[in-house]
Specification:
The complex is a heterodimer. By secondary structure, chain A is α+β, with helices and mostly antiparallel strands. Chain A has 26 helices and 21 strands. The longest helix of chain A has about 40 residues. By secondary structure, chain B is mostly helical. Chain B is about 60% helix and about 5% strand. A two-stranded antiparallel sheet of chain B has the order 1-2. Chain B has a two-stranded antiparallel ribbon with strand order 3-4. In chain B, a hairpin with a 2-residue loop joins β3 and β4. The chains are: A alpha+beta, B mainly alpha. At the A-B interface, α7, α8, α11, α23 and α24 of A face α13, α14, α16, α18 and α19 of B.
């Protein structure tokens, strides 16, 4: 299901749809959900009414002025709607891509749960709960369900990580199959367990579309702050009417006292509305919901589906990452890296025996032994059947695997197992081999001892290969204040060695689902937020406990239900990206809030001198931008509207994020969005004012 | 600015800062219920006796609701006591000057609201209205208790930050008792003793009548045309020093006399002036250290302190400069330059013993804290000089604000700053390990919103009603400044009077009382709610991904937010008042 769905920022049809949606969103009920934009909405209606009044000749300000202010206030509302619609449109495009991908799978539907019933080929999405499907060798099982008939080997490696196929058959506790797994041999008749649209993934696609989007806790908190700020601005502007009535009155009285005609008049409502809209944090207010939607959207671009915006937010707060060793820190499997022959044995002989014993061993470790022998001594792979040999598979009882040739019985396995085997045949297990094995264990490797009959030949050293670049990644995380913990089933000795090599902060060795859960609870009790990945059913309790739990799409249903995100690529390293996306979401909100608030400074200087000029011409001295009195207020209103459009790309893409310590990040963002927010409007308003005057507005 | 101005400011702020740590440590011991060195032996039995009489357990703990309810009931009791003592003072003892009941009732109401809210707005003249009994048992007692109330809220809030996963914030009764007993009483006693030494009266005797050195004729009313000879003068005295000490130390500001600290019996010398300024700054600044110590990180306290001092100086310095510069319109008529013979500058309405420098400093100190005491006529300041104290109050009294209230007010701004700055580093905001979420934002927004809203609405009402306009002494922009100043002072629980506005009318008395009560308790309740919510939270350990709330950068952002969110909100209103006055003065045209 790996796919890439990056949608270009301004795609034609999304933009067209968004423009349409922006108009539809003018419904009062929709506007009322956003306190800041609701004030602008009311202001637009009010100025429009004032304009109509002015057309009838009762204008409280020049008609053209009221018209242009009203028009640009409507634009401000529409731009905000457009930003939200853009984000939603992009989300919908992602969701459609996801849906199409699911429809691609086909299933053989049966009328009755029998092997010989006539199958019809149907899309997986049309399957309903209770339907019967037939899966034959090579098929991907189309849905979660119960096996009713048949026995088959199923490759569930994607779920369990075990490469050995498992047997699935009707009845008993081996009857459950998971969608996305593959039948390797034979056939199964399965009864489908969940309707499409009700599965976990489907529910999440609905989330992505924004249809069921709820405000996240942090978004609510920010909304409250912005609403509070809006109320202050509302009071500060509304009270200017009585203030200016008083001022105009007293100036007129003074003029009358010296025999001059009254010339001072209070501030007009249009100007007060314009000032109010410029002062309230419209920039962040307009973009707030777009930022939230876009955050989830960015997760999807990383092929991660979050069950809620809350989960995305929490990801930004995570300070402990539990990372599975295999697949995340190390390459999938251990690999043979060296042969350590016992005294009197040539390395080549050991390699030869090792290769022979591994020829039929399909595990990645086995393959790596064959390859190492080939690389080191040019030994070509020999076909097991040509040698007339029989393969001895690994069993839990013997804890060895190997090969029986005519007169040779080669075995490889853990040192204890081989020691027992050699001694049972009357051989002697050299102390030298034991010490070599111990040394390998201590350095983080896994020793495999090879014996030919009663004679121990030497040791194969298997090692975890730490992924390239992962150490640097962990160092970055550390600088961000995130602690990495490696979780592994290895013994503490091995785990410590790998942990040191990979540069993780801590490790949990001999991990079981119980110890994992306990570890998470311990960190949480210490006030930390824990993120983890998991796939197996036995991970479910830990996933449910973790604050951010990314389930692998290849994992079991239980794991997916317990987690709050699903990684469609089933790539555990993605956890780091998830954390970064969460941080980016919060940072985008913070940066635009800062920008929005910093903008206010310039707007006071643009509007106040003109606003009070009819009362106190002396205040014209505050016109430090030297704006034209006719266009100054309009310039500020236009800037206020256009900045929303200009910042849509930042809202949708998020601010640039680099892993840095908190203080460095803060400095960067304060410089860009704080100082920028202070300076940009001075330049912008002045530029708009100059343009308006150039076109002889 | 003159070298003298720099020296005076450096001496005051420097001395105050030197005292921050020792006094801060001392207060931390008091509130962490540790034995208090020295005083503990003497006052310990008194403290235990009070608990025994009141039936309070020293170990008792209250959750935020119980703590707040206790506080509100206690203040209600205080309100009634102040009101009725005023009303009954004619029958009560200690009334050698035979003052009758305070009339009208609206004035008694305003005064009661004023003194329980630590505002000390005075629509009356003390020496002609209040008996010694009222001054001592109603007003001075509330000077102690209102300051102690501020301290209890603050200490409960700090405990909310310092404690984790608990509902317990301490006991209001214990905190109140210890605040008065170990902090306010001993410091006031020491200060009162010095004031008495410097000449401040402390007596229960009646007003003496003395013969004037040179009797003079006073013209009678124009109709009678008869003149009277004035040969004697009645001098108002009383238990002044005891009230004066707590007036400054508790950032109360309500003077024994109408002229407040400009009166030679309240503030006789340069030394008392310095000590009064120091006493005003002492507790609000020192508690920053107490706060840092109680949350286990002194740097947090220093950071908040730095923000307070920067704000204070940012408006104190221009105030002193404006007053020392004098009035440019008078440049041709008189010499305003400082010299060995005169202080120079704008001397209108100023005491000769203080001059423009110490008047400006005192004005800034008394308005930066919520004291509101004055040693000069603010109405006669230059427009810019008057704007500075006005703006200091409009910052919601956080630079450094009143005893207790200043720091918890500042911490509200800190929470807002943490929220915005926290987002910018990509984490759900947290302060001292406590997550700041929707509930805290809601309550902090209310607490921050209340004072400016009250100022604006109050001023707007006064501007357009006949009753409001009736109180104005000067027309035009200055009249607007007077109204704005009066509303600002009451709605921020400061009590500083610009004068010029006649506040003793039913309109101003009632509006003022409502503003003062709302400003005080509608900020205390949300503050306590946050304290309760924070106390219940876990403490997230700090790491390199945590926002540092003590870095200079953070202090800078905190200041920027206070300026943009609150200070600039008043910019349009200020433009119609002091700013346009200043421009009129500079251009010489109104």
């Amino acid at each position: 299901m790996a796919m890439h769905h990056s949608v270009t920022l301004f795609k034609g049809d999304i933009v067209r749809q968004a423009m349409l949606a922006a108009m539809v969103k003018l419904k009062p009920r929709h506007q009322a959900r956003n306190p800041v934009m609701f004030v602008v909405y009311i202001g637009s209606i009010l100025t429009t009414v004032l304009w109509v009044q002015a057309l009838w000749g009762h204008g409280e300000a020049p008609t053209w002025f009221i018209f242009w202010v009203a028009l640009w206030l409507w634009f401000t509302v529409l731009f905000a709607n457009f930003a939200e619609a853009m984000a939603e449109g992009r989300g919908r495009a992602q969701a459609d891509t996801l849906r199409r991908a699911r429809k691609d799978t086909t299933a053989r539907k049966l009328t009755t749960p029998q092997r010989d019933a006539a199958p019809t080929l149907v899309p997986a999405s049309s399957l309903r709960k209770g339907d019967f499907i037939l899966c034959e060798a090579g098929d991907v099982i189309a849905a979660d369900g119960e096996v009713l008939a048949g026995v088959a080997s199923v490759d569930e490696s994607a779920i369990t990580g075990e490469s050995a196929p498992v047997i699935r058959e009707g009845g008993g506790d081996r009857s459950s199959v998971t969608g996305g797994t593959r039948v390797l041999s034979d056939w199964l008749v399965i009864q489908v367990g969940a309707n499409p649209g009700e599965t976990f993934l489907d529910r999440m696609i609905a989330m992505v579309e924004g249809a069921r989007r709820q405000k996240t806790p942090n978004e609510i908190a920010l909304n409250i702050l912005l609403a509070g700020f809006t109320i202050v601005c509302l009071l500060a502007t509304a009270t200017l009417l009585p203030f200016s009535i008083y001022s105009a009155h007293s100036v007129n009285n003074a003029l009358a006292a010296v025999g001059k005609s009254a010339g001072a008049s209070p501030v007009s409502i249009t100007i007060l509305v314009a000032l109010l809209v410029c002062l309230i944090p419209t920039t962040i207010g307009a973009l707030l919901s777009a930022i939230g939607i876009a955050g989830m959207d960015r997760m999807i671009q990383a092929n991660v589906i979050a069950t809620s915006g809350r989960a995305v937010e929490a990801a930004g707060d995570v300070d402990v990452l539990l990372l599975d060793k295999t697949g995340t820190i190390t390459l999938g499997n251990r690999q043979a890296v060296a042969f350590h022959p016992a005294g009197g044995v040539a390395e080549k002989d050991l390699a030869d025996a090792a290769q022979l014993s591994s020829l039929a061993d399909e595990t990645p470790e086995g393959r790596s032994v064959v390859i190492l022998a080939k690389n080191k001594f040019g030994m070509r792979q020999r076909q097991v059947d040509h040698l007339g040999a029989s393969f001895v598979p690994f069993t839990a009882q013997t804890r060895m695997s190997g090969i029986d040739l005519r007169d040779r019985h080669i075995r490889k396995g853990a040192d204890a197992a081989i020691e027992q085997y050699v001694q049972s045949l009357g051989g002697e297990f050299p102390a030298e081999i034991r010490s070599t094995a111990d040394n390998i264990s201590r350095s983080g490797g896994t020793p495999l001892v090879v014996a030919d009959g009663a004679r121990a030949l030497g040791v194969i050293e298997l090692k975890d290969i730490v992924k390239g670049g992962i150490r640097e990644r962990f160092a970055e995380l550390r600088s961000m204040g995130i602690k990495t913990v490696m979780v592994t089933g290895d013994n503490p000795l091995t785990a410590a060695a790998i942990a040191a090599e990979a540069g993780v902060d801590d490790f949990l060795a001999q991990a079981t689902p119980e110890t994992k859960l306990k570890l998470i609870r311990e960190y949480q009790a210490g006030g930390r937020l824990v993120a983890m990945t998991g796939d197996g059913t036995n991970d479910a309790p830990a996933l449910a406990q973790a604050d951010v739990a990314v389930a692998m799409n290849s994992g079991t249903q239980a794991a997916k239900e317990a987690g709050n995100m699903v990684d469609l690529d089933s790539n555990p390293t993605k956890l780091i990206e998830v954390v970064e996306t969460g941080k980016q979401l919060l940072m985008t909100r913070g940066a635009l809030t800062t920008f929005s608030i910093a903008n206010d400074v310039s707007k006071y200087f643009a509007i106040l001198p003109v606003m009070f000029a009819p009362v106190y011409p002396q205040l014209g001295r505050l016109n430090i931008m030297d704006l034209d009195p006719h266009t100054a207020i309009l310039s500020a209103v236009i800037f206020n509207a256009l900045i929303i459009i200009a910042l849509i790309p930042i809202a949708l893409k998020g601010v640039t994020y680099r892993p840095r310590p908190a203080n460095t990040l803060l400095w960067n963002n304060i410089l860009i969005y704080g100082l920028g927010g202070l300076i940009v409007p001075f330049i912008g308003i002045k530029a708009i004012d100059m343009i308006l005057n150039t076109v002889r507005f | 600015m003159t070298p003298n101005a720099w020296l005076q400011m450096a001496l005051l702020i420097g001395t105050a800062l030197l005292l921050v740590k020792p006094v801060g440590i001392y207060m931390a011991r008091v509130y962490e219920n540790q034995p208090v060195p020295g005083l503990g032996k003497v006052l310990g039995p008194v403290e235990r006796g009070i608990y025994r009489v009141c039936g309070v357990s020293a170990q008792h703990q209250q959750n935020w609701k119980r703590y707040t309810v206790a506080l509100l009931l206690f203040n209600l009791l205080g309100f009634m006591a102040v009101y009725f003592i005023q009303k009954w003072q004619g029958w009560l003892p200690l009334n050698p000057t035979h003052m009758s009941a305070v009339a009208p009732s609206a004035l008694a109401l305003n005064t009661a609201a004023s003194f329980i809210t630590n505002t000390n707005w005075q629509n009356y003249a003390g020496e002609t209205t209040m008996s010694y009994c009222t001054q001592m048992t109603a007003l001075t007692v509330q000077n102690f208790l209102s300051a102690a109330t501020g301290l209890t809220v603050l200490v409960a809030f700090v405990r909310g930050l310092a404690r984790k996963t608990t509902t317990e914030l301490g006991s209001f009764w214990v905190d109140l008792t210890r605040s008065v007993l170990y902090i306010l009483l001993p410091f006031s006693l020491a200060l009162a003793a010095i004031l008495i030494w410097q000449g401040v009266p402390q007596t229960l005797g009646k007003y003496p009548t003395v013969h004037v050195v040179q009797p003079f004729h006073q013209a009678g009313a124009p109709t009678t045309a008869a003149s009277t000879t004035i040969a004697t003068q009645t001098i108002a005295i009383g238990p002044v020093a005891s009230q004066e000490a707590i007036k400054e130390l508790g950032t109360n500001g309500g003077g024994f006399f109408n002229a407040n600290s400009a009166h030679p019996f309240e503030n006789p010398t340069g030394l008392t002036n310095f000590l009064e300024e120091l006493a005003i700054l002492l507790l609000p600044l020192a508690f920053c250290y107490t706060f840092g110590r109680m949350v286990g990180d002194a740097r947090q306290g220093w950071a908040v302190l730095a923000a307070m001092v920067v704000l204070l100086l940012a408006l104190m310095i221009p105030c002193v400069i404006a007053e020392q510069a004098g009035n440019p319109l008078l440049a041709h008529y008189c010499d305003q330059k400082p010299s060995v013979l005169q202080a120079g500058g704008n001397m209108v309405g100023k005491e000769a013993r203080f001059g423009p420098v110490n008047s400006g400093i005192f004005a800034a100190v008394a308005t930066g804290t919520s004291t509101g005491a004055v040693n000069s006529m603010l109405d006669s300041f230059t427009p810019l000089g008057g704007l500075c104290p006005l703006w200091l109050m409009q910052l919601s009294e956080v630079a450094p604000g009143g005893v207790g209230s200043g720091l918890y007010g500042m911490l509200m701004f800190v929470l807002i700053t943490v929220f915005i700055a926290g987002l910018m580093i990509g984490r759900t905001p947290e302060y001292l390990g406590k997550k700041i979420e929707a509930f805290e934002m809601k309550m902090a927004s209310i607490a921050i919103l209340i004072p400016p809203s009250l100022v604006l609405v109050g001023t707007a009402m006064a501007c357009v009603t006949a009753a409001g306009l009736a109180g104005i002494a000067n027309p035009g922009a200055h009249g607007f400044s007077e109204i704005l100043y009066a509303m600002t002072s009451q709605a921020n629980n400061n009590g500083s009077a610009f004068a010029g506005l006649n506040g003793d009318s039913t309109f101003y008395n009632v509006i003022g009382a409502l503003l003062m009560l709302a400003a005080r308790f509608w900020t205390i309740i949300p503050t306590m709610a946050i304290a309760g919510s924070l106390a219940g939270k876990k403490i997230i350990p700090a790491g390199s991904g945590t926002l540092s709330t003590y870095s200079p950068l953070f202090v800078f952002i905190l200041l920027a937010i206070i300026v943009v969110v609150i200070a600039l909100t008043f910019f349009p209103a200020l433009a119609l008042g002091p700013i346009v006055e200043q421009l009129q003065m500079m251009t010489g045209r109104w």
